[in-house]
Hints:
Mean pLDDT: 97
Order of helices and strands: EHEEHHEHEEEEEEEEEH
Number of domains: 1
CATH architecture: 3-Layer(aba) Sandwich
CATH superfamily: Class I glutamine amidotransferase (GATase) domain
Oligomer: single chain
CATH class: Alpha Beta
Low-confidence stretches: none
Amino acid sequence: MVGIVNYNMGNLASVVNAFEKLNIKAEVQSNPDKLSSYDKLLLPGVGAFGDAMEHLKSNGMDEAIKDFANSQKPLLGICLGMQLLFETSQEFGSHKGLGLINGEIVKFDESNFDHKLKVPHMGWNEIFIKQSPLFDGMNEDFYLYFVHSYHAVCDDRYAIGKTHYGYQFVSAVQKENIFGIQPHPEKSHENGLKILTNFAKL
Length: 202
């Protein structure tokens, strides 16, 4: 059973619908005391980093997610959920994250773009992957759907996916049982559903 963390910041309906389409048992959970009962945990997210952390802290969900990660069971953050896995974010000030992966979240630096592009980065783009169980059976590069203005900066050992938008940035990460992906697999058709299937099989 996959637990989907509800902290009033996620696009839950599309995530739930994706798992239903795959016939994978998933349940939205708002009670931090119940997270430990799941085999796997998915942390979705849409919105601002600071607001998200406040929501998570308001009822102890932040500590419950950390405890789950420490249990060695698979945890997947998607979009803002991936960003929350890191130590800090520079979105609208400096904010502390869950600190499960070393690194920070920064805004796209348009001064370093190789040509004029708009921020946010929105739409389909290519992801180039390293070997990971999250991408089992997939090509070395494929397209997923992105919507974001900030991205992760971290040690290359955690990067399992990279994407080019103005410059190359980290778009998927793994640290042992903790996974994160910047694009929205639930909005990425067959490729995204394959990623969610692989996560459910971990």
